[in-house]
Design goal:
single chain, 121 residues, alpha+beta, Beta-Lactamase, 5-stranded antiparallel beta sheet, 3 helices, 29% helix
């Protein structure tokens, strides 16, 4: 997961095709199976990281793009359900507000969620 101002994203932090799409359109990207969805499936990052589910939301404040929320799952496709998308969209709007209040902020936050399967509870 990345939450970062646009200028702070490392070059190989996410698929270039997703990054440029969000910058160009100011729209979200939701890929249920990135390995099979054109044009993103041809991205070198998607192929090398075996990316399956990808979601990238723009972080905006007053129509100005100030960052991105990027989430990826390499184990399963179709992990972003409508309920999760709604919660993450709310989080993205709040993150946009907070990032806009921090001029000069150049932090990139990266969190890796463990990939080992959890026992059924």
């Amino acid at each position: 997961m990345f939450i970062a101002p646009i200028r702070a994203l490392p070059p190989a932090a996410l698929p270039e095709s997703v990054y440029h799409f969000v910058i160009r359109t100011r729209d979200s990207v939701l890929l249920d199976d990135a390995s099979k969805q054109e044009p993103f499936s041809a991205d070198a990052y998607v192929r090398s990281h075996n990316s399956r589910s990808i979601m990238c939301l723009p972080l905006s404040k007053q129509a100005k793009l100030i960052g991105m929320l990027y989430l990826e799952n390499n184990l399963a496709s179709h992990v972003f359900t409508p309920a999760r998308i709604a919660v993450l969209s709310l989080l993205a709007s709040q993150a946009g507000d907070h990032l806009s209040k921090m001029p000069g902020c150049t932090r990139t936050y990266r969190t890796r969620i463990p990939t080992s399967p959890r026992p059924n509870v």
